Amino acid sequence: MFTNSKLAKSVKLACAFGAASSIGFTGAVNAQETEQAAEAVEKIEVTGSRIRRTDIEGANPVTVMSRIDIERFGVTSIGDVLQAIPSAGSAINTNNNNGGNGTTTINIRGIGSNRTLVLVNGKRWAPGLGGSVDLNNIPAAIIERIEVLKDGASAVYGSDAVAGVVNIITRQDFEGVHASGYMGQYDEGDGNKEQWDVGFGTSNDKGNVYFNISYVEEEPTFTGDREISAVPVFGAPTGFGGSSGTPNGRFWYFDEDGTSFNVQNDGNGGLIPWSGSSAFNFAPLNYLSTPQERTNIYSQGRYELTDNLSVNVTGFYGNRRSAQLLAPTPLFLGFAGGTSGITIAANNPYNPTGLDLSDQAGFGEPNGLYFLGRRMLEAGYRQFAQNVDQYQFNGGFEGVIEIGDKEFFWDATYTYADITQNTLTDGLLNMDRVALALGDVDACNNSDDGCVPLNLFGGATAIGEGTITQDQLDYITFTAQDALNSSLESYTANLSGEIMELPAGYLAFATGYEKRWQSGYDQPDALIAAGITSGNSRQPTSGDFSVEEFYLELAVPLLSDMPGVEQLDLELATRYSDYSNFGDTTNSKVGLKWRVNEDLIVRGTWSEAFRAPSLSELFLGNSDSFVTLQDPCNGGEAGNPNAPGCAGIPAGYQQPNPQIRTTVGGNADLQPEEAESFTYGFVYSPAQVEGLSITFDVFDIEVDNAVSTVGAQSILDACAETGTQFCSLIERNSGGVVTELFNGLVNLGGQTTSGFDYNVAYNFETEFGDFRLNWDGTYVDERTTIVVDPVSGETIEENDAGRAFDRDVIPRLRTNLSVTWAYEDWTANYLVRFIGHTTEECSFGTSTDADGNYLEDTLCSDPGETTFDDDGNLVKDSFNELEDMAYHDVSVGYAVTDNLRLTLGVNNLWDTDPEVSFTTFANSFDPSMYEIPGRFFYGRVNLEF
């Protein structure tokens, strides 16, 4: 029984701090109900099961965070809070600028955010086109607690519950008014954040109503304002990692005799030789953390029509305005620049060469425009601004059916959700107009669209300043307008209760039906869809699917009141799902909970799970991405005699641009991912130590038939090494330049991960106040990605635990240790967030610093031995270690009155810098795991009456 549980006693003491114990307390029990638990036992629904029970400890491992726990993190998004828990892996957040879109997601076990299901009050929250939920759009003010199930649960909840489930429980039965204000900023004086909310609630014996309005504003920080992010590669020589698209332009062309000219503008109208040190430092002209403005309105109500019938409704509206900022557009033209059909005419008034330079001529061919790179500072920043509206409505009935002396609980709910995003992108170029403005001047002047000859051979000095005039900009620039939408509609019905009494207890069940429709579209700007933009082109996305599901759960008591077996229960579940696009799937679950005695529970589960492909994965139109890659065939066939995939590439070939056009796209024939997970562990609350609880759980997850891409760099490397593997996905022109690389979605291979979670919580009282210690951690023993070559069928498999990749950091150990103190009107909290060390590959090739030392020797922590192969090529196996590190957060609160509470806090108290990474895409540190540099100071006011 719940009232006899040592865990329940721990929960009562934890309530002195306003927080539920995070060691298995999982039921829908608020603090008031906990205090009354000794007097009245209530059946509750535990996350991971639809069966109501009196015992809150189940077979599933669950972590619980209360509203007060959330506030102690001192942030404005619950997504940032959840990303900090040890079981979470790398995920997108508002510190992702290039590649970000304003969302923050949760990635339990690090195997993909779309493999974590998000619920609100046990009901599916609408995902975006990609299948992940933006947690920024769920206001923290409405939350009573968050329950995180770290186990597969597709048998209970359906698709997406592969790695786990996040169930957000909102405030219930609240009476009165609450309001709060929050403000904070970095010690650098930037990154201001503020949050304001007010909520109203009333309740009586017949029902309750709750209404909340919240507002959040977050201002940006700039990369140039932090040392680590102010250059392309931290610690490298000036110019290294910079862009060939410079404000003064880089021009590599051949005259009518085939003589090579690799030059740049000298700033005075002349041309001088190009030097690698002239590469453009684009890094300072980007956001480091991105701005957001969020407004949310939430309401819920429940009313008892009769003693056994209630009606309930929930309504939500959220608006998010967010933005990302990138350095001005780099315009790349020519044979190596990837364009086709552009000629800079000899009679262009700004062409100093007097030649018709064509991008159709290859390397060394007469009148060939091999490469042109010009940073369009005059056009201003590239800014991506999102305006997102999200609506969600849940409405239905719930009640109790009494048959004899038994009660059966039922509910029926209708859900409708809609997410619409409009995006404006500034600073892009219309490439058709660029071609006309560079071409024959007579054709330009006689055109009917206002063509103005374009001057790419002059220079730019600052944002908005240079030799490209406003008339020229007005002709070639445009503002892109994109529209995205996803919607969800569902009907659900559930029934649960106890069937019959067995010798060890009651046989209980839950069963239900769900019909769900999902649809969506992505309509890019017409110029983007036509592929005539200087940015990434992409095709429209549109599609829908539906699913019909049935499930059944059983809780079977096997043994009780025996020596060594106080209670032994078997949990069974299965769900049948029939999808309109790929067919049906059945997934089951078996759990066992053995209560050895009042102090110890041993538990374990085996479950099948699945993830249906998302709308984006199924229907995404092909789109371009310019990924920074290293061509393994530099040097051509002659320079790589042991690389069969480099055969036929001209001698002396060197990759002209580090950013290679890569195409990604959806696949309507994708099948669902399949998974198996196995967890086992124990919960120990010794009677000898009041307030102490210990949990330990081992996890093992295997995902098959995974929807993924092979990876652009992996495709290049494997083709070079084998001459066959993935080579069909690469196109090169006659000069050896990669003009196209397809990295589309396929059901290919899978993932496995294993390790263990632990938690130690200890609550105790002293004459100096009440203390709560909580130590929560996750150790990853294995995380393996299994890649299968779609052509040869060969597999590539390697354990990545303890390694770091671009925006995917996999520390073996993550742990949080918090100490909370409460005494009279004072509280204080100290939180340590530890991130274990990882190792990344560290390759700079033959690049050297100003003293002639290999960069791998000066930047990589483990540069390896410098050797040369038989052909004189440099051979180094270099790595870089991202060392153990920890963030320290502290806060102090004071209750001025019974209604007013003040809190002051500092995140990153000791000003710890993120670990330097050379594989991450930008900023020299990985924002998916580490935070931007600087102490963050904040204050909060809470008012309740």
Share of β-strand residues:
over 45%
What average pLDDT do the residues reach?
Answer: 90
Can you give the helix content as a percent range?
A: under 10%
**DSSP strand count:** 53
Question: Radius of gyration from the CA trace?
Answer: 30 Å
- Low-confidence runs of at least 5 consecutive residues: 1-40
**Helix-strand category:** mainly beta
End-to-end CA span: 35 Å
SS field, number of helical segments: 13
**Largest sheet data:** 22 strands, antiparallel, barrel
Shape: elongated
Describe the structure.
The structure is a single chain. This protein has 945 residues and is mainly beta. The strands form twelve sheets. It has a 22-stranded antiparallel beta barrel. Strands 3-6-7-4-5 form a five-stranded mixed sheet. Strand 12 and strand 13 (260-265) form a beta hairpin. The longest helix has 11 residues, at 712-722. 49% of the residues are buried.
Short description:
The chain is mainly beta and 945 residues long. 8% of the residues lie in helices and 47% in strands.
